[in-house]
Amino acid sequence: MRAVAAELGGRPGQRLCTKLRIHGRRTALLGQLAAQPVPARAPRILGIDEFAFRKGRTCGTVLVDVESSRPVDVLPDRETSTVAAWLQDHPAPRSSAGTA
């Protein structure tokens, strides 16, 4: 959504989202430009849940940083392989605490 907002702006971005069947109003798209970017590091505690883009039709997966309660990424489907690929691309930070 951030890329759509950056490339097209409000109303044209809203029209593209409608064609792609993604919920994206012009004000929400423009809000993406003002939102702080998600940190490049993987969260320490990751929450994973599925949701419906459209009720009963298309499902996706949302990844949430549990400590900050902020969304980290939205995946286009709910397949295990998609989540596994995301986890490989975003390795978890290493902790030196508790190592003996």
Explain the overall architecture.
- By secondary structure, the chain is of the alpha+beta class.
- It is 36% helix and 23% strand.
- The protein has four helices and three strands.
- The protein has helices spanning 2-8, 10-19, 26-34, 80-89; strands spanning 46-54, 58-65, 70-75.
- A three-stranded antiparallel beta sheet has the order 1-2-3, with no helix packed on it.
- The longest helix is centred in the N-terminal third of the chain and has 10 residues, at 10-19.
- It is globular and about 35 Å long.
In short:
The chain is α+β, with helices and mostly antiparallel strands. 36% of the residues lie in helices and 23% in strands.
Average per-residue pLDDT, rounded, comes to 75
Tell me the radius of gyration. 16 Å
* Shape, per Cα inertia axes: globular
Q: What is the oligomer described by this structure?
A: single chain
Biggest sheet descriptor: 3 strands, antiparallel
H/E topology pattern: HHHEEEH
Taking the alpha carbons of the first and last residues, their distance comes to 44 Å
Strand segment count = 3
The proportion of residues forming helix, as a percent range, comes to 25-40%
Segments where pLDDT lies below 50 for 5+ residues?
Answer: 95-100
Contiguous helical run count:
4
Neighbour order of strands in the largest sheet: 1-2-3
Broad structural category? alpha+beta
